[in-house]
Design a protein that fits this description.
mainly beta; Lipocalin
Length: 192
């Protein structure tokens, strides 16, 4: 299966640099709360470029997220997340991702790279989903003549690996905030 494959009657993505369109993209996350539900959030400010190589497996992604743009729909919680207990945005204003490889694994793609949070870089693998079945969402031209491409990717990390350890014990056992954080990317990019 190739990234350049035709899907949904759309041509495949072409080589070159593609710029992530934040107005039509989402950098989201979810984490367990009280061990019974999930809190979902997103970051509203981010930039990134996708470089598609002649050999699709040599393609890459570089992205930066403004940590102060975290939004979970609750101002008090967002303030706590921005503080020293969690993201410490005054000291570490950005989170970055720089890919190191793209591999085809059992008919799917795995994008590997270094995720840097709070100054700590750790390897992370994103499972790429194209059209929900590990295939490319496609390429389209908008009404203004801009060429756009879309894809989705997910990864799960343990926040403690980046020194984000704050928690509170629950009276009945367990903790207030889960350690595992699921990252969900829904990206639309424009050909530069």
């Amino acid at each position: 299966m190739s990234i350049a494959a035709h899907t949904n009657n759309n041509p495949g993505i072409t080589t070159g640099v593609w710029t992530i369109d934040p107005a039509h993209s989402t950098v989201g996350f979810s984490v367990r709360h009280l061990m019974v539900s999930k809190v979902r959030g997103r970051f509203g400010a981010f930039t990134g470029t996708i470089t598609i190589a002649d050999n699709a497996l040599e393609s890459g992604l570089d992205a930066s997220v403004e940590m102060a743009s975290v939004d979970t729909g609750d101002a008090g919680r967002d303030g706590h997340l921005r503080g020293a207990d969690f993201l410490d945005v005054e000291t570490y204003p950005t989170m970055t991702f720089a890919s190191t490889s793209l591999k085809a694994v059992n008919g799917h793609y795995a994008l590997q790279g270094n995720l840097t949070i709070k100054g700590v870089a750790k390897p992370v693998t994103f499972a790429l989903e194209f059209d929900g079945v590990a295939e490319f969402d496609g390429v389209a031209t908008d009404p203004w003549g801009n060429t756009k491409a879309g894809f989705s990717a997910t990864a799960e990390i343990n926040r403690k690996d980046w020194g984000i350890e704050w928690n509170a014990a629950l009276e009945a056992g367990g903790v207030l905030v889960g350690e595992k954080v699921k990252i969900q990317l829904d990206i639309e990019a424009a050909k530069a």
